[in-house]
Fold this sequence. Notes:
- The structure is a single chain.
- This protein has 13 helices and 10 strands.
- It is an alpha/beta fold.
- An 8-stranded parallel beta sheet has the order 9-8-7-6-3-2-1-10. It has a two-stranded antiparallel ribbon with strand order 4-5.
- Helix 6 runs parallel beside helix 8.
- The chain is globular.
- The two termini are 14 Å apart.
Amino acid sequence: MPTRRFVAAAVLFPIGLAAAACGQVSSASVGLTATRTSPGVPLARMVGQMIVVRLPGRVPTPSFLARIRAGQVGGVILFPENFGPAGPGALIARLQAAAAQGGDPPLLIGIDQEGGIVKRLPGAPSLAPTQMVTPAIAMAQGYATARNLIRYQVNVDLAPVLDVGRGGFITPRTFGSTPAAVAMRGGAFARGLSSGGLVATAKHFPGLGYATTTTDAGSVAAHAPPRALLADLLPFRAAISGGIPMVMISTAVYPALGVTVPAATSRSVVTGLLRTTLRFRGVVITDALSTRAVTRYYSPSTAAVLAVRSGVDLVLAAGTTSQGADATSKAAYSAVLAAVHHRRVSAQAVASAYELIVRLKQRFSRG
């Protein structure tokens, strides 16, 4: 699949983060707005396309498949517990069949296949990001990773990590210790994924380089002066210039940027910094909303609503383990749908997200 060249931006300029309020934004009726933007698609199914869930175990239950057929699931993230040595191909085929039976677009099937310490399936990449020392090596590894994942019917790699290795917890997963190195090598890996036919995902915007601990374990703040935090946007800026289709928003807080809630729930990060300043026009996905970095502030379902209000398209409501994963994603779906009906979330925003998601699925469809 041809892709545009990833071009590293040469200059970073100061970015002002607007502290935009998250008030009601739609004065039109829910039904009229949704119908005008996406004719014939029920609002409930548009919301469903925004929900990414986790499958408990290796065998989908009848109720799990029913949710897919009912249009309440847009994507599934897979973990090693979901498949054996043969891989997830047969499982994914069954999940996709349920989506087809419901008349919905194919599911996004995502996995963390970064290389090194985060790698869910055998095969490519054979190197860790830290070992991809040139753009040529990184691009070849990305292409090989795409071909490896496609044979399992995975269509989204939740990679590359575009955080800069500043010595914190994320450092072993990064492409380098400078913004320029990460922009070149991480961007090349993303270009390889895309040219191999896979959705690449730039993460974790606006950067976890200065975070000392993982967002899985507790509330995390990226402490650094604004100038340092903004300098680490270079890899994301370069990837966006090159047309990367998806960006994942972190759940850390950024006090120096005025962001004191998880970034994935912050309108100033999603709509202000990513959409307006960096002009990203692709699909925005949250990092997991059930981790402690989020639950210190909000329940996962409340965080899902706030994320959508902030401009997010895909909500990763997957649960930290398979136990309770179904309840977490069901609650997130119900909360977002109720928020639209009560006009706490704009139906127009949901319809716009739906169209972006469907366009992404069509672009990377191999059916």
